[in-house]
Records
---
Amino acid sequence: MPQLRKDPITNRWVIVKIENPQKDWQVTHAEVHSSRTCPFCPGNEGMTPKEIAVYGKRRGGEWGVRVVPNKFPAVRIEETTRRTANGIYDRVGGFGAHEVIIESPEHSADMADFSIEQLELVLRVYRDRCLDLQKDVRLKYILIFKNFGEQAGASLHHPHSQLIGLPIVPSRVLSEVKGAEKHFEYTERCIFCDILEQEEQKLIFLDSGSHVALTPFASRFPFEMWILPKKHQTHFEASSDEDLASLAIALKGALSRLKKALNNPSYNLMIHTSPINDNTSDMFHWHIEIIPKLTEVAGFELGTGFYVNLTPPETAAEILRNQKD
Amino acid sequence: MPQLRKDPITNRWVIVKIENPQKDWQVTHAEVHSSRTCPFCPGNEGMTPKEIAVYGKRRGGEWGVRVVPNKFPAVRIEETTRRTANGIYDRVGGFGAHEVIIESPEHSADMADFSIEQLELVLRVYRDRCLDLQKDVRLKYILIFKNFGEQAGASLHHPHSQLIGLPIVPSRVLSEVKGAEKHFEYTERCIFCDILEQEEQKLIFLDSGSHVALTPFASRFPFEMWILPKKHQTHFEASSDEDLASLAIALKGALSRLKKALNNPSYNLMIHTSPINDNTSDMFHWHIEIIPKLTEVAGFELGTGFYVNLTPPETAAEILRNQKD
């Protein structure tokens, strides 16, 4: 049973595995599967828990995208949300949702090379899973993320993303939402809209009509990328099918440029959207963050939350802009 | 010239290298040097910038610990602290101090195996460098940290630590200091002292007299360790020679147990101390944090600031307690 524990000093939350804790730690490598032994490949559907949803179904039982519960969930929908104290410590039961989105039936496909249609389908699945899960009022936040490549923490090669629904709004999300609120109180404008206004030239490297991709001014990591809708929108899941068509073009453009510029690096992709079931704030502007895994986070970053970045975003934007499609 | 940039949304700071930015990123490995080519080995003193301090000098020019400016500094004492705005963005000149503490003349020595005398000497150097640098009133924070092993970001094998002095109190430090203040306002007690009081049995795995080593209740990482003085102390650099003798025993005990329990893992070590030149707060309790590098920080952690830990700290404490000295 997982348990959520709060650090009493910083209010940072940690999901701790209590049953069968891991005692031995060796450097592990991603499991290499052929399509015969891969649990995400067509024909092996029995190797995953029963599916939650299937998209793009064709004759002969073929599917385009498949959503299944995570076999090793960090949180579980059957757990309690009860909060208990032990002296100065706070604990919450490990309640939540943890799903895997299998993005393609093809074992060796890569999101950067997906057809626009396939990428649109994946984005519609992301949206629809958010819309479905937000009916559970116990959930406060839904994070969709993708770990690509071993250096970024992927343990399986078959293209997939993950969704985690949490009973708590995470601190990093709160700090972004509060930062946006502070700016709004002062200026009565959205800070992300202000960034787009100011960055027309220098840091934006791609425009797909309704979305842009840019390298942020205070990039923590070399070649950090954000994809934002041009018009103000608080929740990713409010995207229409037309919005997602433009987003697919921006996402494919950003990922394929990154792949070419840096010889297919590992990366983490996260959708930063507003907390769900919260209609009190409309100052946040959802966006995708993509963090290539090129360096190790070391003692200085861990100790301070300060980052050192050896590639200024204006240099990264220029390199990404100059990649051929 | 480095530049400090503030993210306008979260107020997170980033040090950005502007001159000669790195454009190409390949997976890099630590430089392997023999003692003949290692810039930190005795006899090669000319390969580093001129030394700032030398400790433990013996006949024949031998030294015990040597402090030199970092050859590739993240910040520089010659830079400006001037703050400028560009629209919604904030910039500060890359002012600060960045030093390397060469912990031993022996190329292949390992802090976990240092003699207690050598470790005491290193800790005295840490303290004395803090005391010297805090005379510069432009500095607001001094972080001492050590990256051990390639997975933890070390680029040279010769045992060394680093010191960075910053013109800004970093956000992660502020969040700890503010958390401690909040607890004090409510209870009129130090939260770290409260933790020590509550944890006598379960999470403390080592007691050296004036210091203890424990695995924190909300450990973000498997086998995360903290070393704390038992009596309340705000600043590491206020440690007496007797304090440092006890700290050396605790530090050696923690590092050597970690080395045995997990087969010599990479780790990051950071001293979390109070901001300098700030006498307004005495609620913070300095401590050392040691983070073994066993997993990759992936999309979920990056997106939320929430961590998933597969080894509960009570399990880690038991394993560490049972290691023979």
---
Amino acid sequence: MSPCVITTLLGMGRWEPDAAGRLREAAIALYLERGYEQTTVADIAERAGVTARTFFRHFADKREVLFNGSEVLEESMVSAVTDAPADASPVAAIGAALDASGEVLGDRHAYARQRSAAVASSVELQERELVKMARLAGALTDALRGRGVGEIEARLVAETGVTAFRVGFERWVTDPADDADLSTAVRQVLQELLALRG
Amino acid sequence: MSPCVITTLLGMGRWEPDAAGRLREAAIALYLERGYEQTTVADIAERAGVTARTFFRHFADKREVLFNGSEVLEESMVSAVTDAPADASPVAAIGAALDASGEVLGDRHAYARQRSAAVASSVELQERELVKMARLAGALTDALRGRGVGEIEARLVAETGVTAFRVGFERWVTDPADDADLSTAVRQVLQELLALRG
């Protein structure tokens, strides 16, 4: 296979061959160029070279273009908690979830940077991002409870894990090194959180 | 003064004498009775016995009825961080902010319970609450940085403080004891967070 085909199969090209990827890139470009509010679904479809009908086959609305991968992240992190060794502490199980986040998103540094810039440009997108993080905290709390962790500790550990993810993700996105590692960044923040003292 | 007048002056009566308080109680009652989406500003004003014009003198829209006290909470917590002794650690300064939250909200247990139930009933209100908490974390981060705390530590400690506030506030709201103390609840959660180990 040519390098181009391999890149295509990996879904990592500047212009992904699939319609969903092209729509995502088009949406981010337009949100940054003219603003989220001023961009329509028709604009995004046109930029991506597809019809509005194709857009709606992939996404419910222009906001969801940037969020329809959320379930993959959440499911991976929840599975990591559920599948952690039976004798792993709650914090160790959350550490495994943070590693999983790195595996899911770690090879998307360039995309993550662009997406973060687009989210930061719109209050509505920022709110949607907050909702995503709150849901993630709820799902991780449930996963910890499924391991027999008490409700209060489960909530605290899950919230701590999500804080580590959010702060570590931000550090990773703003890290100028192209080979910056997301798992390392979020694990580092978790260690710093656990080391906090009064 | 009669007990009634004293209650009135303290703003703690079931029906607060001021229009803003009456509108707030009317809004919560209606959101719980018929749902946030199904309630209009006209409904709230009518229930409170005032005109829609009076409503808009106090609140920008029906969502803000439940949030226009947010600045008071944020300013009190930020001031506590800023005014903490110069040699207080970042975590100690955040502890002072948590104490301040108890002073601002601690005598509003019954109201806090009703408001929490109303917020929980609507996705839009939940999102607004998430935004409020994110802003609070940002303001506390800035206040810590103003004390000379480095950016990364400031962010971590502020996020930890907001987690302690959120989880402690929830525990307080769901505590059946009428004399439950908010400051104690949030301080307790902060201690539990700091005690987490891998």
